[in-house]
Request: fold
Amino acid sequence: MSESVVDFDVIAKILQKHKNDPSKIIPILQDVQKEFRYLPKDALLYIATTLNIPPSKVYGVATFFSHFTLEPKGKNIIKICDGTACHVKKSGDIIKALKKRFLLKDKKVTSDDGFITVETVSCLGACGLAPVIVLNDEVHGDMTLDKVMKLMDDLEA
Amino acid sequence: MCINREELVKLKQEMDETFSSFKKRVVLCGGTGCMSNGGDKVYDEFLKVLAEEGLDVTVDLKKEDKGKDLSIAKSGCQGFCQMGSLVTVLPDEILYTKVQAADVKEIVKESIKSDGVIDRLLYLDPRSEKKCKGVKEIPFYAKQHRLLLKTCGRIAAESLNEYILNGGYLMAAKAVLEMTDEEICRDITESGIRGRGGGGFSTGLKWDLARKEPRVKKYIICNGDEGDPGAFMDRSVMEGNPHGVLEGMMIAAQAIGADEGCVYVRTEYPLAVERMNKAIVQAEELGVLGNNIFGSGKNFKVWVMEGAGAFVCGEETALMASVEGKRGMPMPKPPFPAEHGLFGSPTVINNVETLATIPVIMAMGSSEYNKIGTKNAAGTKTFAITGHVANTGLIEVPFGTTISEIISDIAGGVIDKDGKINNDAFKAVQIGGPSGGCLTKSEWDLPVDFDSLKSVGAMVGSGGLVVMNDTTCMVSIADFFMKFTQDESCGKCTPCREGTKQMKSMLEDIREGNATPETLETLKDLGKNVQLASLCALGKTAPNPVLSTMKNFKEEYDAHVNLQTCPVGECEDLIEYDILGETCIGCTVCARKCPVDAISGEVKKIHEIDQDKCIKCGVCFDVCKFDAVKRG
Ligand SMILES: Cc1cc2nc3c(=O)[nH]c(=O)nc-3n(C[C@H](O)[C@H](O)[C@H](O)COP(=O)(O)O)c2cc1C
Ligand code: SF4
Ligand code: SF4
Ligand code: SF4
Ligand code: FES
Ligand code: FES
Reply:
């Protein structure tokens, strides 16, 4: 995968905001991810060098927490809630159908053409509307397979 | 800058006067459920229509608003999410349900400009078939005891002045100015409140341990990591009443002598993060937080830390590690956080609900609070009730309320496969999330408290209640929770890391038809070992859902293993969908509804399923009106 050129000035500003404090590594990574939508390798190295900590430590933190992603995400992001409430209302079938549709597998969550990332999340706090999905930050409740497939048709149109 | 108590009391009086000058008050639910159900548009429409009608409205209560026509507020989740979006009109105590933007004009005309009630927007109780005007008449609310959640659903979540109107920060002032640290600890101990984060340890005693530590630097941490995937009580409290959480933290800080506090919020809750941050800024500006609080010479400051998506970080030692910028892995205890906590200093970690309840306890008096609930479990507990019930949402009941009261009376009963209310379809209720266990019909009348649940292999846990009807496969539910805990195991200790992996793969064997009766025995033994040998409570409780479903639904496990079938047809490797040639009339409905285009056939010709494409969702089985699709 070709690495995009990382703007180090942006990262430097983030580091300054957190006063180059190594104990703030999690908020720092969060801010960097907000900026680039993932954590580019070069960014991790830059952070390690600036904070004067081993890159393995930065990498260790980045891989421990599931919120961080080291891979770029797709143009569209769909999150399917697979929290308990949604699960008993058959969110599993929605996940299976979407994976089939975009030719994805367990760890492979972004389609080859970069069109979409299909993620599962635990409880979005809208259990009353289970099953729930979030398509590009918009919450859709009371989903059925039918409705999800229609949304996808519209997205691809 | 600090505010003293007299100024705070004066501010409250001013708010009282201003507020009582309004003729009407409208409260819209601003929770995630209602907002994604059209509530955001309803709010905008209200502002538009009210302006068009020339009504003078206040959206952010302040002294200068005295004499305006009405106030409008966006509250936190009001609990009745299924009926969203919700609009309450006061003082008439009308609750409108399922409101859409198109209804707003009529509400303004009928219920705001005059005192009428719009019948069609009232809640229809399916049991009595009566329309209910307000919360007092709606069984969902009438049977609850909303002590903590009351404020959440009534005040504007982002307004400090509305919190003050409701007596906000007066209890913090009392704790700071009138009580010694020892008195606060004693008072809270006597109230009988036990931690709401899962462990159920006495809050007062926990504080007292930290209080006795002679160190100067101490911390309070509010645990808002809420990992249980199917629970959203803490989120609702942080979003709906952030100042209540802060006030609880201030009182806790007084009790142990802490001058810094951290609110740890999981990253999936951006609105909670935003609201907590905003509340901190407001409280600092007013001068209740910061230096020299209430002129006492004491300081307290709070910051918010966003988690990064690890369930185990809800565990207190792992949480502290991640606040310190490390991988969030639990540490053996002792030392307990009360002696050696954040950055090595004595620390008290409490759950969001625990902390937000503290000002409520102080306001009503600890002996009054102690009268609510049961002997060993005082007070009320919030639960997120979800799954196959008529009213999913957020509830609060006294400890000792029975499962049947919760499911049948409050949640409105079990929903069967056809979407009808039918308690006979009840199969199980999972309580306590991935650490808990499931209860069955035989526990229908069990009172809910710490001890009673423990006695049947479940736990109060965080308060997720998932009701399941008879279309749910219990092996698959056990597998679901096992997958969750296995994914979330931090990998530090072998019993949990390897044990959950093995348990998960045995459950898969069972669901794929590759298991023998020995698999079941091994699974049970392994589960018991993981419980005993794991380092932290994640591992210790991970086997609970498996062991409790194995105990309560033995025949279902046996059917998977011995008969190679999934009785409810959920485990995909044990089932197959086929179209019966002699029955299919070729209506094409199934082919059109199949989400993955696995069905082919021409109009009026027999249809066929491509088994390689089929994901076994069962849609064809459900939609075929001619019983031509067979599940086998
Ligand atoms: C794996 C694991 C996850 C936990 N998650 C949470 C959580 O999300 N929220 C919480 O308040 N407590 C959680 N706890 C319990 C905390 O460790 C701690 O006991 C609690 O925050 C103490 O607060 P309380 O005394 O007010 O209950 C968790 C414990 C474990 C072992
Ligand atoms: S029990 Fe599991 S989560 Fe807890 S320390 Fe051990 S491996 Fe980590
Ligand atoms: S819905 Fe039933 S009858 Fe109609 S085409 Fe499908 S299998 Fe045949
Ligand atoms: S079970 Fe679902 S995926 Fe399979 S054929 Fe029927 S509708 Fe299509
Ligand atoms: S479980 Fe899906 S929103 Fe809560
Ligand atoms: S989100 Fe409105 S009642 Fe829960």
